């Protein structure tokens, strides 16, 4: 049976509030999330029967939005600029995942890492190929290698100094993708 429009709206609001709340505090209670989303605890539990179910749904929704946004970025921006924005968002996504790590069992943590790998690699490959075709990205790059280089960006510490460092590292990564003279 299809969900009613108010149920869909409640679910979307819960996911958005949970994303923000759990990114701020990985130990936030489900009751605090329900309160911030302005729904009752029963409504939250009807959509997400456990904390882990909510965390997984937040992560999956973030990943889906990330991939969709990358494709839109390619229509709006040159490939290297699109890749920069994608990687900035991906770094934020990885930080959210890291912050949610305690809320996930080891099995689910491994499962979502495996689940997210394909869409992330496919998106990187699409952007690299687009850049190859317009000459802004050198040919023959392996998306796995590019993703591995990006690991440095989301390992920077939180706060202004870490953000500045992640931007410098992102500049280095993107410069390495440009065609050689």
List keywords for this structure.
181 residues; mainly alpha; Arc Repressor Mutant, subunit A; Tetracycline Repressor, domain 2; 2 domains; elongated
Could you characterize the architecture of this molecule?
The chain is built from 8 helices and no strands. It is mainly α and 181 residues long. It folds into 2 domains: 1-49, Arc Repressor Mutant, subunit A (Orthogonal Bundle); 51-177, Tetracycline Repressor, domain 2 (Orthogonal Bundle), CATH 1.10.357.10. Helix 4 (51-76) runs antiparallel to helix 5. This is TetR/AcrR family transcriptional regulator. Residues 29-48 bind DNA. It comes from Amycolatopsis rhabdoformis. Residues 8-66 form the HTH tetR-type domain.
